[in-house]
Structures are given as C-alpha cells and as structure tokens.
Amino acid sequence: MIALIAEKPSVAKDIARIIGATQRNDGYLSGNGYMVTWAFGHLIQLAMPEAYGVANFRRESLPILPPDFRLIPRQVKAEKGYKADPGVLKQLKVIKEVFDRCDKIIVATDAGREGELIHRYIYNYLGCTKPFVRLWISSLTDRAIREGMDNLQPGERYDNLYLSAKSRSEADWLIGINATQALSVAAGQGVFSLGRVQTPTLVMICSRYLENKNFVPAKFWQLKAATASGEISFTAQSTAKWEQQPEAIAALQRVKDAGQLAVKSVERKETSQEPPLLYDLTTLQKEANTKLNFSADKTLSIVQSLYEKKVMSYPRTGSRYISEDVFDEMPERVAMLGQYPRFAGYAAGLDGAALNRRSVNDGKVTDHHALIVTENLPGELSKDERAVYELVAGRMLEAFSGRCVKDVTTAVLSAGDTDFTVKGAVMKEAGWRAVFGERETGGDEEAASLPPLQEGECLPLSGVDLLEKQTKPKPLHTESSLLAAMENAGKELEDAGLKASLKDAGIGTPATRAAIIETLFTRQYIVREKKNLVPTDKGLAVYRIVKDKKIADVGMTGMWETALSKIEAGNMDADTFRKGIEVYAAQITAELLSVQLSVAGSETCPCPKCGSGRILFYPKVAKCSNVDCTLTIFRNKCDKQLSDKQIVELVTKRKTGLIKGFKGKNGKAFDASLVLDEQFNVAFSFPEKKGKPKK
C-alpha cells in the first residue's frame, strides 16, 4: 500500500481521481493500492515559550533561545489561552493511521518551501520513518499530475529545501518572539508585535509617509509655447526651469518679442520596445493592485483558486521565465486562447507565427516557472477570478508577441534665447501593445505626432504661457509600490558593497509578502486610505522606536533571504545560520529592553486584586502589570470579544452593564452582565425576567 499526502482536501481529491483512489473514508480516500490523505495547511507549529518552562513577557526571561524547538499541533483560541485545534488532532490521527498502514509515502504538498515544511513537520511530529518520494508539479491539470506521478523524485533531493524552510520558521520565531516581548516589556502596556520581515516593511511605509508629510514644495516656472506647421498645431515646453518668477517673466517677454520659433534641431529615430516578461507572483500582485485595486493578499487568494481550478500554473513563483520544454507547449496554449472571446482575434493572429523567446531561459527558472495559463479553457469564473485570469492570459500573449516599433521625433525650437522641446511618436507596428490596445502614456511635452519639421525652419508663435509649477514629494506607498520596494530592497541601500551583495535580494518572498502586509493591518500599524498605505499612531510610535535599531535593518533582512537561498542550494550550513540568528536575537532584545514607548489613547486602571499593579491590555487578554499577580481577564467570553471599556468597567466597578450577544454551548444567544467574584474570577449575572412571580 502507498500513502499520498496533499496540502488540502481539494488537491487530494484531484490526485486521487487520477490514480484510482475513489473510495471515500473519514479523512482519506483509498483504492488501487493507494491511501490518499491531506493536511489543512500547517497542521504543526513551533511550540510557544511556555512549552520550554519560560514565563512570557518577563524581563528576566529574555532572550528566549530554546536549545531544540518542539513541534505541537496547531493551536486555536480558547476561553483561557490556547489549545490544540480538535480538527487538527483528528486529522493528524488519520494521517498517522494512513502512514502506519503503508510501505512508502508520496509527498504531494505544494511544490515549494512552505509545502515542504508542512509535510516534514507532520512527518517528524508523528515520528514517522517510512521512505518517501516527492510529486513535484507546476499545475494541477490531469496531464501534469500524470506526468508528475510518472516522474516521482527522491525525497532526499529536497532535504536542503526543508532545511531552508525550517531555518526560516525558527528565525521568525526567535526574532518575532524576543523582539515583541522585549518591546512590550519596555512599554509596560500592550503588545507591540515585531518581526524579521514585518518590521523593516513597516519602516518603509512610515519613512515614506513622513517624507511625504514633511515635504516642503518649491515653486518653479516654465514656458509653454504654441505653434503650428501646415494644418498641425502643437505645443512645446521650455527646457529651462526658473526658480525666480521675475526671471521667467523676463524670458517670457523675450520670446514674445521674437514673435516666432526657429527649428534648432530635429532628431528622428526608430525605437522598438521588447514585450514584457511573464508574471511572477509579485509582478502580478503589483499589476492587479494598480489596475484592479486588489490587495496583494486578495490577488494571491484568487490566483490560488485559479490554480486549484486547473486553469493557472503554480502561483507562488519568483521566476518570470519558462524553460525550453514548457516553451514547446506555448503554441498549443496560444491556440487555446483563440477560443477565449476576449483574446480570440489576437490569438488567431499569432497562430503559426514564430513566438518571441525573451521569456525563455532555463537558467532563470527556479522551483517553478513563470505564471501561465494551462491547457484547460476556464469555465464558470467569478468576476474577480476572470479579471486576474485575463491579466495572466493577456500577459502571456504579450510576452510571446513581436516588438512594438515606433518612429520618435524630438525637436528643439528656439525663441529669444530660450529653447523649447517637443517629442512626437508614430506607431509603425503595435506588436505586443495590441493585446490590450493600451497606449503608452507620455508626459506633457509629448504629442501623438508632429508635422514634418526641417532644421532652420521658422514657425509662427501663436501664443506663449507662463506655467507655475511646484516640486512634488514621493507619493505615499500603495501595495503595488510597497511590493516593488520589498522586492528591490537591496537597491535602496547606500553602502555600495552591501548593495552589490544584495543586488537580487529583496525582503520576504513572493509567497510571503502579501501575508506580511496583511499582518501590519491586523496589528493596527497601518490602514488603507483609498489606495495609499498610511501608518496609524501606533505604527508611527513603533517606527520611531525601531527605525535606527537592528530589527529594522533592511540590509540584514535581505542578507537573511540570501542565506536562506544558499541553504536551499546546499551552499550554507543551517546550524551556522541558526547561531547567527541567536546572536542577533540577543542583540535586538538588549536594544529594545532599554527603550521607552508611549502610545496615546490607551485605557488604564489599577489592579483590584493586588492593588500595586495596573491593568495592561493585550489583543487576547487583560492582565495585571505585576508579574506576581495572577489576575487575568480573557477577552473572548462565550464567543463575545470584550472591549477595553467593558474590561475597565468590570475591574473598577466589579460589574458591567448588560452585554448583548453571548453564545451558549447550544449556539443560542443570550444577554448578561459580567461580574468579578470574590476570587477575582469572571462570572455571569443575568437580568431578572419581567413578570416572574415572587416566591
């Protein structure tokens, strides 16, 4: 018997159908010599500090550096703290039974770093020693699954990928836990989450916001002249910019006095634009944010859905290239798009043509090739799914199309010792730009076309205007520009040596950047204002503390990403990386324990139990600041989240007003007040029922 484990039930069912495992069982499918089971993403996680006998949020406990990390089932929020997710425990039991009954395992979790970690953590937690092989595919089409099953890879081939994933997981724990607890202890109130990638990303958003907010615009002036040749009128802008208005007015008068414009030079040249490369995940997320106003997280969710519907290749890719063998299939994919209404006409025109090879490079394909559509024509899609599908399908047609060729004319005109420039372009071959029919946007000085001009020719001056302008700050980050900044973090560094070493390193990976941005929203560090990302007061307070600290060092974070890639390639020892992270975690802990942090608007009140501490408010609990006091109030009470205001009322008055919307074990809603009893436990107080006879 052979076991197969997939990352989620839907994928397991697809594979099971192909290999003939069609009998349904509780938590797995069986048949034809196979038992097919599944995870629900990460079933296993690293244990929290209390599992190592360490008290949380105590200065003397930091830094927390476990000698060996323990694996535990995924936790869920409970009335008091956290407990193992019952659904996870049930599925882990099923997986163990499946593994125990089989001779070998086929690993079919997603073919990437996190997919490998999902399987290995389960495998190690269960203490399994059965041999395993790897199904490594880039789409979920029937053909891809069959080909993958015919070419299963040795499991040990991906040992370094696992070590890289494990190193990433442990580094995030060491830095996130220690930095968060250190800053929170220093603040003395609330929890201030920090992280290996999260914090440098917050710094990018805040620094851009403050740069924009504090920018002082400077005025300058330019001239704009209107003229004509034959039947064609056009305008040209002065090359000079004047910082003083009187100088600009004097130049304006000299141009008026001249009364005409002389053609000083004319340059004509043919320019060609190569088509864009195919999408990787980050480039698609940037485009979807700009064109569709989708968040990075929403785009990832949609493209994952398209992948599971077998119409899109593996989404979490960092490559914009395809290999030669995949390129061989492209004429078939282009022909398939001839049946898709939006692209039918264009795809038909490419049929039989030599396809552009710019996106073909075996050496630049990593674990997965660029995002492309599969051989399956999509059926019913939601509006958002169709929009993303068409972005990818359209980009695929663009990438394999010919160059866009234009004739560009640049003319310099002169009047009264002031030069004016104008640029015009005439499309000769639309090439790849014809896919969406998009025109390239030009600046104020660019005309669609210019009349034929000759050097030395004189043109009439039909008018000249003085334009008052002002310098502009860099715009606030959108998700699109932030993704670009994360991807190209190394380019922003001032140190030339470090910049060179991080030339191709960003922070985060295509698979994790969306989650990092969403984490900043969840932590209430940033908000959206239209498309812009704007820091909150809490986000700015954290930024001011950490901006010069090691935790915010983009260069350091970029070097870690490079190190993780080296571990994956077998060029770095994972233990060496771990030791470096531990040293770093100790350094940032010492730095952060010494800071002072204040955020306006926080609730505060004395502890009624010990009298010496004050109540600190955390996302999931409120507790006394005195570490020896046991007063703890959990926010979640019968499926109702208590607000700071309700907790303050409970602590100060020992009873709240009537709170509506609690849910009983039977699922029915009820209303009640909360009271703090003699032992400082939280209990319910129910209102007297009206009309009830007194005994």
TrEMBL record:
It holds the Pfam family Topoisom_bac. It catalyses: ATP-independent breakage of single-stranded DNA, followed by passage and rejoining. Its EC number is 5.6.2.1. Residues 1-141 form the Toprim domain. CDD domains: TOP1Ac (cd00186), TOPRIM_TopoIA_TopoIII (cd03362). It is an enzyme of class 5 (isomerase). Residues 158-589 form the Topo IA-type catalytic domain. GO terms for biological process: DNA recombination; DNA repair; DNA topological change. One of its GO terms (cellular component) is cytoplasmic replication fork. InterPro entries: Topo_IA (IPR000380), Topo_IA_2 (IPR003601), Topo_IA_cen (IPR013497), Topo_IA_cen_sub1 (IPR013824), Topo_IA_cen_sub2 (IPR013825), Topo_IA_cen_sub3 (IPR013826), Topo_IA_core_domain (IPR023405), Topo_IA_DNA-bd_dom (IPR003602). One of its GO terms (molecular function) is DNA topoisomerase type I (single strand cut, ATP-independent) activity. PROSITE patterns: TOPO_IA_2, TOPRIM. Belongs to the type IA topoisomerase family. NCBIfam families: topB. This is DNA topoisomerase. The lineage of its organism: Bacteria, Pseudomonadati, Bacteroidota, Bacteroidia, Bacteroidales.
